[in-house]
Write a structure and sequence with these properties.
alpha+beta, Heat Shock Protein 90, 13 helices, 56% helix, elongated
């Protein structure tokens, strides 16, 4: 995941969390506006061209409003071109503000424009990959440095040129580095969480639960071999039959360990739970982080507690004729209908933002089906689920 986490945004990794907190860009815009008004007004830093500063402030605020508009769920992914529009607006605000101060001295340490550029990066954090935010930050750093050297340094004897540039770039660099670290931390953590097994009931002892569970599983797995070795030691001799049996035990143990390694992430999730996985082609490994996260969250909520499970589920994955991956999830829930709809609604919203051709049918058996683009990257017709109330049946025919 180390390389992939550079290309995944927090929105891609967990759409539902960011769907419920959608106003970060507007908050950044409000902070920029308030800070700019205070600096240009009470702090007296409007200079001799206040209208130029007001126009520059308007461009900076517009950059964050653009991020808010461009990241609404129905508008799709926040692409590099959309990010560059925000960078261009913010960079233009910095350059215009610097030009407004050209030919006069002002307190560069109170300059509002660098902080606004840093807040633009903050506004893009939930919707940008680490690599994309790094590119945006580098562009803003370069533009701000050039504007400072060309329009600010020649007329400001208060600070040495390098000091003036450092004061200008400090908030932008902090915003860029902090944003990249935050994005990678979120996406890497969610990737690890989405692939871990569901919680196994802990052993009631003072020992570490994970260590005890591993010891118990290992003891069960090697029990036949241990019993065989003990029998040979008791006899004090090795026969030809013992050699054959030892080979068979070794082959079986090797096959079990190989099968454990070959389990897909969803098979590891299903282990020991009321979840049936039908994925003969191992297509689950081709789902991206966002799709895994949504499915994992839904299965965690349904099946995460062995003492009071909300229901059982069956997951089927098939390759369609056009190369897409068709996924069908059927949920048999013990919840009343009203509570079931309320319980599943957030996951529907989250799935809607990360998959294609989502179909959701309620009833005694809740049927969810969607498609994930395969190698062809093209959209395919939706595959219908079986008749209502039928928990099984193939997905692709």
């Amino acid at each position: 995941m180390s390389g992939r986490s550079w290309r995944v945004s927090p929105w891609d990794a967990d759409p539902l969390s960011w769907f419920t907190t959608p106003n970060l860009p507007l908050a950044a815009a409000a902070m920029t506006l308030v800070h700019g008004v205070l600096v240009l007004g009470p702090a007296g830093q409007a200079g001799s061209r206040p209208l130029v500063q007001v126009a520059a402030l308007g461009l900076s605020v517009l950059a964050m409003v653009w991020v808010h508009v461009a990241t609404r769920p129905r508008r799709g992914a926040f692409t590099i071109m959309r990010a560059l529009v925000a960078v261009a607006l913010s960079g233009a605000g910095v350059v215009m503000s610097a030009m407004g101060y050209s030919g006069e001295t002002f307190a560069v340490e109170l300059w509002w424009a660098p902080l606004s550029a840093s807040l633009v990066l903050l506004a893009m954090v939930p919707y940008s990959s680490a690599a994309r935010l790094l590119v945006a930050g580098v562009v803003l750093v370069a533009v701000s440095a050039a504007a400072t050297l060309v329009f600010v340094v020649p007329d400001d004897p208060t600070w040495p040129p390098l000091s003036a540039v450092a004061i200008t770039l400090f908030p932008i660099i902090i915003g860029m580095v902090g944003g990249v670290v935050m994005i990678r931390s979120i996406t890497s953590g969610l990737a690890r969480w989405s692939e871990r097994p569901l919680d196994v009931p802990g052993v009631d002892s003072g020992a570490d639960d994970l260590a005890v569970a591993i010891d118990d599983e290992t003891r069960i797995r090697i029990a036949p071999a241990t019993a065989f070795i003990a029998s040979v030691l008791d006899r004090g001799a090795v026969s030809a039959g013992d050699a054959v049996r030892a080979g068979a035990l070794a082959q079986r143990l090797r096959a079990e360990l190989t099968g454990e390694i070959d389990r897909t992430w969803i098979e590891r999730v299903a282990r020991g739970r009321a979840l049936t996985v039908d994925d003969p082609e191992r297509l689950a490994e081709q789902l991206d982080l966002a799709q895994r996260t949504v499915m994992r969250a839904l299965l965690d909520a349904l099946l995460g507690h062995t003492d009071s499970p909300v229901g059982s589920a069956r997951v089927e994955l098939r390759r369609t004729e056009s190369g897409a991956i068709a996924v069908a999830l059927r949920i048999l829930s013990t919840l009343p209908e009203g509570r079931r709809e309320t319980f599943l609604a957030p996951y529907y919203v989250s799935l809607q933002s990360s998959v294609e051709n989502l179909r959701w049918r309620t009833g005694p058996v809740t049927a969810v089906e969607f498609e994930v683009a395969g190698a062809s990257r093209s959209r395919m017709p939706v595959l219908r689920t079986p008749d209502e109330g039928t928990p099984g049946g193939p997905v692709a025919r």
